[in-house]
Amino acid sequence: MIHSIACKPILEEINSVYKQGCVIIEVETENIAVPVKIYVGSDMKFLATVYGIAKATAKYACIWCKVKQDDRHNVSKSLDYWNSTIARTLEEHISIAKQGKTDFGVKNMPLLSIDFNSIIPCEMHMMIRIGDVLLRNIMDDAADRDAECKVLGEQSVFVKNIVKAIQQECCIPSVETWYICDPITNHPTDKLTWTQLTGTEYKKFFEKFPDSPTAQTTLHQETVNVVLELVSEFWKAYQMANTPPVVDSEEARSALCDEMFQQTKAWINKFTSLGSKRKGYRDPNRGGKSPAVTCSHLWSWSEWCLLR
Length: 308
Prior knowledge:
Layout: H1 2-6, H2 8-20, E1 22-27, E2 30-35, E3 40-41, H3 44-51, H4 79-85, H5 90-98, E4 119-120, H6 123-152, H7 158-169, E5 177-181, E6 188-194, H8 199-208, H9 213-218, H10 224-242, H11 250-273, H12 290-305
Parallel strand pairs: 3-4
Antiparallel strand pairs: 1-2, 5-6
Helix pairs in contact: 6-7, 6-10, 6-12, 10-11, 11-12
């Protein structure tokens, strides 16, 4: 693997510091050992590569635990189940890799000696991925209404109205939509696509879209309130993950993490409850690993954040 060759010096240095738990700093004529704690943070693709784990679409793709792909949306388990009972450990991972097996998505020896419980879930990447799914479902909702109008011979304005809501009411003027052209005939198909939002733009979307008057009247009225609640509630959870409060005791910290865990489980249940009514909500894995990581591992990591 190219990373093990190209990054060998820095990986060896990081592993050495992690093992020793300190760095030596020379102050005048004296060497002082400064304790350090190393954590790892990156996007899922890089983490999977560095730790020798299968890609995101594999049967066992979670960086933190050994959950099967089809069980990632299971919200019946406790927080402790995901982060203790089926948690990945470096020792087990190395043992599987040395035997040449591929159990639990193990592909290669890890390049870092930092254990899995020191990997930080990246809330920005999760926000973008979940935002992609929610926005795609909203666009599909509006496109379905346009299709209904076309059948009735009425003017199709719903996708245009959603774009207007995002551009004007969410203050994201760069958003545009278009229909993908057939590569052979070069004629537009019925496959709608749109401008990819950045992290900063998604923050505006999550904050402002739930209060959009245009969105309220554009989406299917039967489910519009639940759709907007999903956007609003995820934004609140993201803000909590990004700036967790400081608490005074271990008991209070544990209670807060469990409260957020329960709220996230309720959010996933609300998302899937639309599966029989709107496109894109039936498959709980449509959002990839991000909803599962948010529910199962982000709040476990927040326990570390709250130690500040």
